[in-house]
């Protein structure tokens, strides 16, 4: 279990946990920018491939009882990620290996459909399908082939 899920089940903290997944709430400070320029920028290439990243729709991470209009934008895909990263890393090309954000009650079908739609416009990126241990192996294999997933992640 990750730190996010440890707090997610706590009704006093769960809204706060979801806020952590909303890039529109990220605060890029002057010292962040200075640190990046001084310590990191010189060895970050113009083209980045992130080998472990999540694209998700925040509404897929909420249970029915939690659904609220607290998020202006729930989609965290390429456009949201790119605009967030550009704030502190400048305009670099960004691709990667993406998969849904895992939570116990995730609707894997919705999350995988969302990811498939996002990844279709990013030919240099790859996606892993999120599956459960009890999913039918033949159905998983069919979806991987049909949708072009690079593989799967069991959660």
From TrEMBL:
Name this polypeptide is given: Amidohydrolase-related domain-containing protein
């Amino acid at each position: 279990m990750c730190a996010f899920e440890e707090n997610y089940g706590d009704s006093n903290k769960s809204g706060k946990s979801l806020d952590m997944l909303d890039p529109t709430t990220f605060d890029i400070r002057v010292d962040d920018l200075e640190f990046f320029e001084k310590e990191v920028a010189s060895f970050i290439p113009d083209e980045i491939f992130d080998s472990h990243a999540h694209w998700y729709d925040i509404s897929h991470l909420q249970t029915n009882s939690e659904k609220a209009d607290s998020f202006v934008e729930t989609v965290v895909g390429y456009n949201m990620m790119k605009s967030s990263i550009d704030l502190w890393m400048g305009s670099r090309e960004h691709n990667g290996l993406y998969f849904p954000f895992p939570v116990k009650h995730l609707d894997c079908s919705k999350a995988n459909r969302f990811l498939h739609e996002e990844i279709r416009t990013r030919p240099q990126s790859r996606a892993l399908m999120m599956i459960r241990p009890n999913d039918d192996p033949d159905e998983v294999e069919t979806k991987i082939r049909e949708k072009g997933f690079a593989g799967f992640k069991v959660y």
